[in-house]
């Protein structure tokens, strides 16, 4: 279980908390959605969970399987099974996609990656996400379109096989076909990895037509103010946030 316990979070060198007493439990196999107006702390939550150096946890705790991860570095958290599909994936010139994936996989498993098996798996995974195989040999995300970057994030997901997956606006900038491809691969991953859990951060309910959530949470002023099922997301789409009673 991934558990966020009553955390306050601020940007480094600032006393202003962006997250204010936020709590959330995500159990094995569950899919949760975080929605909310701009500037409420949705992406801050994702970065705080991953241990981004610009964000400080001033109160509370973040636990994986009942063990605190606050003192762990980003790579140590990743080895615990955390994975963040970023809103704007990083470009790394000079490091090929295949080198990045092989190094990450070796770091996670602690073992040397068999080159033949890796290439075979990559060829199939590239077909699954509908990326040209030549992209394996290009610098990481360099010259990739927005949709290709998001598909590449899903490729990394398929390779690294994390247990706790955070999608930070994975639907942003995707056309209808690319969104379907991304979501189909996520759904297949969840079916094949029953212990995996999913946290979706989004503005738009469209992605929820593909990724069926167990819970939807409305984040406002740094705290979860209302929770429900998918009908809550549809209500937001129809009426907006201001019309929903989000009192604690």
Mean pLDDT: 91
- Helix count? 7
Radius of gyration: 18 Å
> Strand arrangement, largest sheet?
6-9-10-3-11-12
How do the strands and helices of this protein lay out in sequence?
Layout: E1 2-11, E2 17-26, E3 31-35, H1 42-50, E4 55-64, E5 67-68, H2 74-79, E6 82-85, E7 92-96, H3 97-109, H4 115-128, E8 139-140, H5 146-160, E9 164-168, H6 176-192, E10 197-201, E11 215-220, E12 223-228, H7 230-239
Parallel strand pairs: 3-10, 3-11, 6-9, 9-10
Antiparallel strand pairs: 1-2, 1-4, 4-5, 7-8, 11-12
Helix pairs in contact: 5-6
Short summary of the structure?
This protein has seven helices and twelve strands. The protein has 248 residues and is of the alpha/beta class.
Describe this structure in words.
With about 250 residues, the chain is of the alpha/beta class. It has one domain (about 1-240): 3-Layer(aba) Sandwich (Rossmann fold), CATH 3.40.50. The protein contains seven helices and twelve strands. The chain has helices spanning about 40-50, 75-80, 95-110, 115-130, 145-160, 175-190, 230-240; strands spanning about 1-10, 15-25, 30-35, 55-65, 65-70, 80-85, 90-95, 140, 165-170, 195-200, 215-220, 225-230. The strands form three sheets. Strands 6-9-10-3-11-12 form a six-stranded mixed beta sheet, with helices on both faces. Strands 2-1-4-5 form a four-stranded antiparallel beta sheet. Strand 11 (about 215-220) and strand 12 (about 225-230) form a beta hairpin. Helix 5 (about 145-160) runs parallel beside helix 6 (about 175-190). The radius of gyration is 18 Å and the shape is globular. The model has no long low-confidence stretch (mean pLDDT about 90).
């Amino acid at each position: 279980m991934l558990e966020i316990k009553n955390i306050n979070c601020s940007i480094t060198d600032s006393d202003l908390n962006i997250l204010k007493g936020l709590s959330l439990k995500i159990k094995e196999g569950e899919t949760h959605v975080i929605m909310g107006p701009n500037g409420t702390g949705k992406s801050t939550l994702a970065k705080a969970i991953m241990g981004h150096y610009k964000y400080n946890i001033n109160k509370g705790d973040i636990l994986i399987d009942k063990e605190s991860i606050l003192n762990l570095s980003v790579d140590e958290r990743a080895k615990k099974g955390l994975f963040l599909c970023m809103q704007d994936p990083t470009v790394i010139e000079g490091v090929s996609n295949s080198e990045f994936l092989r190094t990450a996989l070796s770091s996670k498993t602690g073992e040397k990656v068999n080159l033949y098996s890796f290439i075979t798996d990559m060829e199939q995974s590239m077909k699954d996400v509908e990326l040209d195989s030549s992209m394996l040999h290009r610098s990481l995300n360099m010259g990739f379109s927005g949709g290709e970057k998001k598909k590449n994030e899903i490729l990394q997901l398929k390779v690294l096989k994390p247990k706790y997956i955070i999608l930070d606006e994975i639907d942003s900038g995707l056309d209808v076909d690319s969104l379907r491809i991304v979501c189909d691969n996520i759904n297949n991953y969840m079916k094949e990895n029953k212990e995996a859990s999913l946290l979706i951060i989004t503005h738009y309910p469209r992605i929820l037509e593909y990724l069926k959530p167990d819970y939807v949470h409305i984040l406002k002023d740094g705290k979860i103010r209302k929770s429900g099922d998918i009908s809550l997301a549809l209500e937001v789409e129809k009426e907006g946030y201001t019309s929903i009673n989000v009192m604690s």
